[in-house]
Amino acid sequence: MSEINAPIKQPPSIKISSGEYYHRWRLIKDALARYGVVVGGLGVIVAIVLIFFYLLYVVYPLFISATAEPVSEYAVPEQALGSTLLLEMEEQNEIGARFTDSGHVVFFDAADGKTILTQAVAIPEGAHIASFSQGSPINEGAVIYGLSDGRAVVVKHQYKVTYPNNVRLITPSLKYPLGEQALVLDESGAALEKIAVSVGNDSTTIVAKTADTPNAEGKIRLANFQKEQSLFSDEAALTRTDSVLEMSAAGVEDILIDKEEANLYLISKDGQLAFFDISDKASPKLRQQLNVVDAGQKITSVTFLNGDLSLLIGDSSGLVSQWSMVKDNLNRPAMEKIRSFKVSDKAVVAINAEQRRKGFMTTDADGMVGIYNSTSERRLIKERVSSTLPTAAVLSPRANALLVQTTDGKMHFWHVENEHPEVSIKSLWERVWYESYPKPDYVWQSSSANNDFEPKYSLTPLVFGTLKAAFYSMLVAIPLSLMGAIYTAYFMSPRMRVYVKPSIEIMGALPTVILGFLAGLWLAPYMENHLAGIFAMLIMVPIGVMLFAFAWQFVPKAIAENLAEGWDAAILVPVILLSGWFAFKISVPLETFLFHDTLRNWFKTEWGIGYDQRNAMVVGVAMGFAVIPTIFSIAEDAIFSVPKHLTVGSLALGATPWQTMVRVVLLTASPGIFSAIMIGFGRAVGETMIVLMATGNTPVMDMSVFQGLRTLAANIAVEMPEAEVDSTHYRVLFLSALVLFTFTFVFNTLAEVIRQRLREKYSSL
Asked: What is the pTM assigned to this prediction?
């Protein structure tokens, strides 16, 4: 009983001392910090990877191969109305048009061939069609019929889009820009064997080759019709100018007039090209005559490339060559072959140019249809549309569909997927011979107000500009920042270091847009006006410092010893300022004495070096000023962190402070110094606002310090707001961002590998 009634003993309470409590709390905080750092680091890595894959996602469609797929096949609409002279298709790919040799136009549904409308062209009675030609696509579908009695009829096919009941309705029709009355081109009534037309807003030019008659040989006749609006009437009167070209018409197989009605091309079947200047319609002038195909070959097809600046000439060997107008040695326009495409081993039957890009479609004698792009110089599609031979073909205005008529009386409607034909490895990174350029070159010019513009997407000048800007900025930043870091960390008084180091680091917080603003609006004009002073300062400041150092030896010891150790730099500040002031003061008389003119003009006249106000020198100074705090801070910390026992031991063994610095401190701190330089270089490569505002943004490849540049980052900032989403321009800008991303990633990775090796090499010191 006594044992039962005995009180239960409680276990002794565990008391935690305050020291153990804080120890446990510190362990918890250490664990939280450790996991926080891990999560943050992984988050950064994930973010970088996601950025990379997003850039890749946007860029990838640039390199997807073009495709063409059959949609439908049906009998040629209204075959009884004659053979097809021309196939056309409107912008929405809903309606096709067939121009026949009987003078009819058949409008039909492009998808199923159902006839929508049939219209007869106003061909005069008693005359029949002797020739037919299509005008430039920019002429809104103009075609011309040359008749057997020396007359011609110009007609346009047009499409009106309406939305009754919110459903798109396209209504085709014909229009006669010069009236339904046939135009007399040859008074003698000779048949017009070959004909061409160019229809503008206020002017129309027709060139025709007349047939031989018993009384006269055939001629090349030119007729220009100029509209003149009356002040008292809404009707416009036509003023006509006629002329005859002083050239034999024999052998002329093709006639082409450019959209500006300034240039005329006559092509013979044997490969002769005659190039005329017809700016003065009353007096055409022969500019050039040359052979455009190899010996033994014949021209089988010829047309304008979009913009009418180039001719596409197909021959019997299956070669398509592009001839463009360039300036010769005497600065005169001349035709020159800039590239060629081996389309087939068979003859090229037809060439159809795209209406909005520098692409074209070819049809060969074996029935193969191919689509090419001239700028990227690559074949995009090659397909056999039918087992029988094509007789007519057309590429839609948006180049996303094609119609092909074959000898078996069938019409084939295909869908084309070809979004980014201008992009290739060659067009991005190699020299390209663009239209109107005298030679192949690296060019970035992504847009223009003209729809006939040839986009130029070379990334080479942008990469060059990026490296050039980084080079000159590092040329300024590395010596100043590293020398400053060495002096501040090793030689400067601790009291002075307390003020100097934070002051320089605060410079890094200055917004780069402010630096760019000052560089563009103040520094660039100042450096232009005081160029001689800048160069004089580079000479006078070192000389001034050395003279002061020499003179300091003669200062009385009582004064010299009063200067506290490590404060030497303070007395050099006024010396540097005075030397710089003196350099600018003597620069003008020195410039006049040595060069008899301004230094800028001397560079131009003697060395042929031009001077742009916003140039690489301005960028080097401004961006160097932005990079200096980064390199200085990291390098100074690395040098200051070198263990004191190393420096003390070196000095104790008899080494001088400078020997200790060079052979001990710098070697030990080299991984940190290298990291500082690499981080500064990465900052310079990715800088946007300074180069945007201080370089002039000219994408030229010139290493001269006096010329401007354009960097990848600045180019993205300038053009991305204007780029159409998902367009080729838009995706190429993302590609340039991917190039910049990849470049910095690879360079930083390489730098990290080198830094680790330096650390392993000098860790034993």
From this structure: 0.86
